[in-house]
Amino acid sequence: MKRKMLVSIFLVSILLTVSFSLGMAQAEKVNLEGQITIVNEATPSLTIQAADLEVFVINFAPDFAFTFTQDDLGTLVHVKGEYQEDGSILATWVKPVDEGENESDDTGKEDSAYCSGEKETAHPVIIILANRFDKDVDELMAYFCDGFGIGQIFLALQTEKISGVAYGDLLASRADGQGWGQIWKDLGYHGKPKDDAGTPPGQAKDKDKDTDKTPPGQDTDKDKDKTPPGQAKDKDKDKPPKDK
Length: 244
Known about the structure:
Blueprint (H helix, E strand, L loop, with lengths): L1 H25 L2 E12 L4 E5 L5 E6 L15 E8 L5 E8 L8 H12 L7 H10 L3 H9 L4 H14 L3 H9 L4 H7 L58
Parallel strand pairs: 3-5
Antiparallel strand pairs: 1-2, 1-4, 2-3, 4-5
């Protein structure tokens, strides 16, 4: 009896250990960089976009000193934390890159290789952006090698698509020190503009394009059998003449 009890206790201990290990494995550590595209001060939370265009939602514990505002849109931040079951990230540490740790040396060396001629092809993400926004790869690479990050170039291209302002002008504003929050505000957007910009000015909506409205000057079908002026109607042509 005692032996069975010991075996049971041993098995329970193994199960608890395995369960604990699985739980620890689920709390995967995160260490990444990305640009802020959405600031939710009420939640609080951030949405950031990494250099490979992947989007992450960053949540914070109640005791975290959240100081980000709409003025921080477009800021490159370094995030440390843990993945949550819903796919979001619970941050334990977030700093703007210029105030925290810089990008790793390996990443910097790899990026510079595309600009120094060591690599014969353009940066793979630049090629993706060129195809997505129908731009010249060499032109985008020129901005990249001038020091604009891939995230900055992506936001400029996306903003051009929505607002019509040339992405080169937007990057020039960034080079002059304007944040994306201010740029979007000057364009009339509150926060990052959405892709759905509605019907462009001067273009009619599609709802009437297939209707059967009669063009001006053309009669509708309801009058197409009317007798032309000066011609007798067919209904009287076979009647005998009246007696005098």
